[in-house]
Design goal:
alpha+beta; SH3 type barrels; 6 helices; binds biotin
Amino acid sequence: MFNLNLHKEKLSTDYIGQVIQYYPTLDSTNTKTWELIFEKVENGTVVITDNQISGRGRQANKWISAPGKSLTFSIVLYPKVMPNQINLYSLLAGLAITDCLNEHNIQAQLKWPNDILINNKKVGGILCESKISGGVIKSIVIGIGLNVNEEVTDLPLELHNKATSLMIECGKEYQLEILLANILNHLEHRIKNKETNTQLLDWEKHCAHLNQKLAFHSGNETVTGVFKGLTKIGQAIISKDGEELIFDSGESV
Ligand code: BTN
Protein backbone atom coordinates (compact mmCIF):
# COMPACT_ATOMS: atom_id res chain seq x y z
CA MET A 1 0.00 0.00 0.00
CA PHE A 2 1.21 3.47 -0.92
CA ASN A 3 2.79 5.19 2.11
CA LEU A 4 1.54 8.78 2.04
CA ASN A 5 3.72 9.87 4.98
CA LEU A 6 6.93 8.74 3.31
CA HIS A 7 5.90 10.52 0.12
CA LYS A 8 5.10 13.77 1.99
CA GLU A 9 8.49 13.63 3.75
CA LYS A 10 10.27 13.80 0.40
CA LEU A 11 7.94 16.33 -1.24
CA SER A 12 9.28 19.89 -1.42
CA THR A 13 6.70 21.54 -3.68
CA ASP A 14 4.50 24.57 -3.05
CA TYR A 15 1.39 23.10 -4.63
CA ILE A 16 1.89 20.03 -6.83
CA GLY A 17 1.10 16.92 -4.76
CA GLN A 18 0.27 18.85 -1.60
CA VAL A 19 -3.18 17.30 -1.92
CA ILE A 20 -3.06 13.58 -2.72
CA GLN A 21 -6.11 11.44 -3.39
CA TYR A 22 -5.10 7.81 -2.97
CA TYR A 23 -7.25 4.88 -4.11
CA PRO A 24 -6.22 1.22 -3.66
CA THR A 25 -7.91 0.43 -7.01
CA LEU A 26 -9.14 2.63 -9.85
CA ASP A 27 -10.18 2.12 -13.46
CA SER A 28 -8.03 5.02 -14.65
CA THR A 29 -6.46 7.83 -12.65
CA ASN A 30 -7.04 10.23 -15.58
CA THR A 31 -10.75 9.38 -15.74
CA LYS A 32 -11.10 9.72 -11.94
CA THR A 33 -9.24 13.03 -12.03
CA TRP A 34 -11.67 14.50 -14.58
CA GLU A 35 -14.55 13.46 -12.29
CA LEU A 36 -12.84 15.18 -9.36
CA ILE A 37 -12.21 18.33 -11.40
CA PHE A 38 -15.93 18.43 -12.11
CA GLU A 39 -16.56 18.29 -8.34
CA LYS A 40 -13.78 20.92 -7.84
CA VAL A 41 -10.33 19.98 -6.59
CA GLU A 42 -7.32 22.18 -5.94
CA ASN A 43 -4.64 23.08 -8.45
CA GLY A 44 -1.80 20.55 -8.15
CA THR A 45 -3.92 17.71 -6.72
CA VAL A 46 -2.46 14.27 -7.45
CA VAL A 47 -4.63 11.19 -7.89
CA ILE A 48 -2.81 7.88 -7.44
CA THR A 49 -3.69 4.22 -7.31
CA ASP A 50 -1.83 0.97 -6.51
CA ASN A 51 -3.94 -0.95 -8.98
CA GLN A 52 -5.13 0.70 -12.17
CA ILE A 53 -7.31 -1.76 -14.05
CA SER A 54 -8.32 0.12 -17.22
CA GLY A 55 -5.41 2.50 -17.74
CA ARG A 56 -5.73 4.72 -20.80
CA GLY A 57 -2.86 5.47 -23.18
CA ARG A 58 -2.58 7.83 -26.15
CA GLN A 59 -4.66 7.11 -29.24
CA ALA A 60 -7.15 5.10 -27.17
CA ASN A 61 -4.48 2.48 -26.37
CA LYS A 62 -4.55 0.60 -23.07
CA TRP A 63 -1.95 1.13 -20.39
CA ILE A 64 -1.26 -2.06 -18.47
CA SER A 65 0.54 -2.01 -15.13
CA ALA A 66 1.31 -4.61 -12.48
CA PRO A 67 -0.53 -3.86 -9.19
CA GLY A 68 1.70 -2.36 -6.50
CA LYS A 69 4.79 -2.42 -8.73
CA SER A 70 4.44 0.69 -10.83
CA LEU A 71 3.51 4.35 -10.55
CA THR A 72 0.16 5.28 -12.07
CA PHE A 73 -0.97 8.78 -11.19
CA SER A 74 -2.49 11.98 -12.57
CA ILE A 75 -1.88 15.63 -11.78
CA VAL A 76 -4.46 18.44 -11.94
CA LEU A 77 -3.36 21.83 -13.25
CA TYR A 78 -5.42 24.97 -13.91
CA PRO A 79 -2.85 27.02 -15.81
CA LYS A 80 -5.07 29.53 -17.72
CA VAL A 81 -2.65 29.62 -20.65
CA MET A 82 -3.21 29.62 -24.41
CA PRO A 83 -4.29 26.24 -25.85
CA ASN A 84 -1.07 25.83 -27.83
CA GLN A 85 0.88 25.66 -24.53
CA ILE A 86 -0.40 22.12 -23.96
CA ASN A 87 2.58 20.77 -25.91
CA LEU A 88 4.92 22.37 -23.44
CA TYR A 89 3.24 20.87 -20.36
CA SER A 90 3.43 17.43 -21.83
CA LEU A 91 7.14 17.84 -22.63
CA LEU A 92 7.89 19.27 -19.17
CA ALA A 93 6.28 16.19 -17.60
CA GLY A 94 8.64 13.98 -19.63
CA LEU A 95 11.59 16.07 -18.53
CA ALA A 96 10.51 15.86 -14.87
CA ILE A 97 10.70 12.08 -15.18
CA THR A 98 14.16 12.10 -16.79
CA ASP A 99 15.27 14.60 -14.07
CA CYS A 100 14.05 12.19 -11.41
CA LEU A 101 15.67 9.17 -13.05
CA ASN A 102 18.97 11.07 -13.49
CA GLU A 103 18.89 11.75 -9.75
CA HIS A 104 18.83 7.97 -9.31
CA ASN A 105 21.69 7.58 -11.84
CA ILE A 106 19.41 6.17 -14.51
CA GLN A 107 19.88 7.53 -18.03
CA ALA A 108 16.54 7.78 -19.79
CA GLN A 109 15.57 9.24 -23.14
CA LEU A 110 12.44 10.84 -24.51
CA LYS A 111 10.52 9.89 -27.63
CA TRP A 112 8.15 12.49 -29.04
CA PRO A 113 5.49 13.18 -27.97
CA ASN A 114 5.81 11.60 -24.57
CA ASP A 115 7.37 8.19 -24.17
CA ILE A 116 10.12 7.59 -21.65
CA LEU A 117 12.72 5.12 -22.88
CA ILE A 118 15.59 3.24 -21.31
CA ASN A 119 17.86 1.35 -23.70
CA ASN A 120 15.30 1.97 -26.45
CA LYS A 121 12.48 0.27 -24.55
CA LYS A 122 9.46 2.08 -23.17
CA VAL A 123 9.54 2.45 -19.39
CA GLY A 124 6.90 5.15 -19.07
CA GLY A 125 4.22 7.09 -20.87
CA ILE A 126 2.31 10.33 -20.41
CA LEU A 127 -1.28 11.05 -21.31
CA CYS A 128 -1.74 14.80 -21.20
CA GLU A 129 -5.37 15.86 -21.61
CA SER A 130 -6.81 19.36 -21.53
CA LYS A 131 -10.12 21.18 -21.44
CA ILE A 132 -10.26 24.46 -23.30
CA SER A 133 -12.89 27.11 -22.83
CA GLY A 134 -13.04 30.83 -23.66
CA GLY A 135 -9.79 30.54 -25.63
CA VAL A 136 -7.68 29.38 -22.68
CA ILE A 137 -6.78 26.03 -21.17
CA LYS A 138 -9.05 25.72 -18.13
CA SER A 139 -7.69 22.40 -16.88
CA ILE A 140 -4.96 19.95 -17.69
CA VAL A 141 -4.68 16.38 -16.47
CA ILE A 142 -1.18 14.96 -16.79
CA GLY A 143 -1.40 11.19 -16.41
CA ILE A 144 1.86 9.36 -15.87
CA GLY A 145 2.56 5.65 -15.95
CA LEU A 146 6.06 4.52 -14.99
CA ASN A 147 7.09 0.86 -14.82
CA VAL A 148 9.16 0.54 -11.67
CA ASN A 149 9.44 -2.81 -9.88
CA GLU A 150 8.06 -5.16 -12.55
CA GLU A 151 10.02 -8.29 -13.42
CA VAL A 152 10.01 -9.39 -17.07
CA THR A 153 7.26 -11.91 -16.26
CA ASP A 154 5.00 -9.07 -15.01
CA LEU A 155 4.95 -7.51 -18.50
CA PRO A 156 2.58 -8.81 -21.18
CA LEU A 157 4.42 -11.30 -23.42
CA GLU A 158 3.82 -9.24 -26.57
CA LEU A 159 5.60 -6.26 -24.95
CA HIS A 160 8.77 -8.08 -23.89
CA ASN A 161 10.78 -6.59 -26.78
CA LYS A 162 9.32 -3.10 -26.45
CA ALA A 163 8.72 -2.41 -22.75
CA THR A 164 10.86 -2.41 -19.65
CA SER A 165 10.92 -1.31 -16.00
CA LEU A 166 13.49 0.27 -13.68
CA MET A 167 13.90 -3.11 -11.97
CA ILE A 168 14.60 -4.90 -15.28
CA GLU A 169 17.11 -2.26 -16.35
CA CYS A 170 18.85 -1.60 -13.03
CA GLY A 171 18.33 -4.88 -11.14
CA LYS A 172 17.01 -3.26 -7.99
CA GLU A 173 13.79 -2.27 -6.33
CA TYR A 174 12.77 1.38 -6.02
CA GLN A 175 10.55 3.04 -3.43
CA LEU A 176 7.47 4.27 -5.32
CA GLU A 177 6.73 7.02 -2.79
CA ILE A 178 10.20 8.55 -3.17
CA LEU A 179 10.10 8.42 -6.97
CA LEU A 180 6.70 10.11 -7.00
CA ALA A 181 7.88 12.93 -4.72
CA ASN A 182 11.01 13.40 -6.87
CA ILE A 183 8.98 13.58 -10.09
CA LEU A 184 6.56 16.13 -8.59
CA ASN A 185 9.42 18.25 -7.19
CA HIS A 186 11.03 18.37 -10.63
CA LEU A 187 7.74 18.99 -12.43
CA GLU A 188 6.90 22.01 -10.28
CA HIS A 189 10.40 23.39 -10.81
CA ARG A 190 10.14 22.86 -14.58
CA ILE A 191 6.69 24.52 -14.72
CA LYS A 192 7.89 27.51 -12.67
CA ASN A 193 10.67 27.99 -15.22
CA LYS A 194 8.65 27.12 -18.28
CA GLU A 195 9.40 30.40 -20.03
CA THR A 196 13.17 29.76 -20.12
CA ASN A 197 14.56 28.52 -23.47
CA THR A 198 16.65 25.85 -21.81
CA GLN A 199 13.56 23.67 -21.29
CA LEU A 200 13.17 22.86 -24.99
CA LEU A 201 16.93 22.46 -25.41
CA ASP A 202 16.91 20.05 -22.46
CA TRP A 203 14.15 18.07 -24.13
CA GLU A 204 16.13 17.89 -27.37
CA LYS A 205 19.20 16.78 -25.39
CA HIS A 206 17.21 13.86 -23.99
CA CYS A 207 15.54 13.12 -27.31
CA ALA A 208 16.17 9.58 -28.58
CA HIS A 209 15.67 10.49 -32.26
CA LEU A 210 16.93 14.02 -33.05
CA ASN A 211 17.58 14.22 -36.83
CA GLN A 212 16.53 10.59 -37.16
CA LYS A 213 13.55 8.86 -38.68
CA LEU A 214 10.53 8.77 -36.36
CA ALA A 215 7.11 7.16 -36.68
CA PHE A 216 4.26 8.32 -34.42
CA HIS A 217 0.49 8.51 -34.35
CA SER A 218 -1.29 11.77 -35.06
CA GLY A 219 -5.07 11.70 -35.21
CA ASN A 220 -5.96 8.59 -37.20
CA GLU A 221 -2.73 8.38 -39.15
CA THR A 222 0.79 7.15 -38.57
CA VAL A 223 3.30 9.82 -39.51
CA THR A 224 6.82 8.90 -40.57
CA GLY A 225 9.52 11.47 -41.17
CA VAL A 226 12.76 12.89 -39.83
CA PHE A 227 12.41 14.60 -36.44
CA LYS A 228 14.15 17.99 -36.78
CA GLY A 229 13.44 19.36 -33.30
CA LEU A 230 10.83 21.42 -31.46
CA THR A 231 9.12 24.71 -32.23
CA LYS A 232 9.18 27.47 -29.56
CA ILE A 233 5.97 26.04 -28.10
CA GLY A 234 7.07 22.42 -28.13
CA GLN A 235 5.46 21.14 -31.33
CA ALA A 236 7.38 18.57 -33.36
CA ILE A 237 9.06 19.68 -36.60
CA ILE A 238 9.01 16.75 -39.00
CA SER A 239 10.73 16.74 -42.35
CA LYS A 240 8.83 14.63 -44.87
CA ASP A 241 9.13 14.52 -48.65
CA GLY A 242 11.10 17.77 -48.70
CA GLU A 243 8.55 19.63 -46.56
CA GLU A 244 8.67 20.69 -42.89
CA LEU A 245 5.48 19.76 -41.06
CA ILE A 246 4.43 20.79 -37.54
CA PHE A 247 2.61 18.45 -35.11
CA ASP A 248 0.90 19.03 -31.75
CA SER A 249 1.09 16.45 -28.98
CA GLY A 250 -1.76 16.99 -26.51
CA GLU A 251 -5.20 15.40 -26.46
CA SER A 252 -8.42 17.27 -25.75
CA VAL A 253 -11.24 15.72 -23.74
C1 BTN B 1 0.93 6.32 -23.47
O1 BTN B 1 2.12 6.00 -23.51
O2 BTN B 1 0.14 6.03 -24.39
C2 BTN B 1 0.43 7.09 -22.30
C3 BTN B 1 0.21 6.20 -21.11
C4 BTN B 1 -0.30 6.93 -19.91
C5 BTN B 1 -0.68 6.02 -18.78
C6 BTN B 1 -1.02 6.77 -17.53
S1 BTN B 1 -1.10 5.71 -16.13
C7 BTN B 1 -1.80 6.98 -15.17
C8 BTN B 1 -2.74 7.75 -16.07
N1 BTN B 1 -4.08 7.18 -16.03
C9 BTN B 1 -4.42 6.64 -17.20
O3 BTN B 1 -5.50 6.06 -17.44
N2 BTN B 1 -3.43 6.81 -18.08
C10 BTN B 1 -2.33 7.54 -17.53
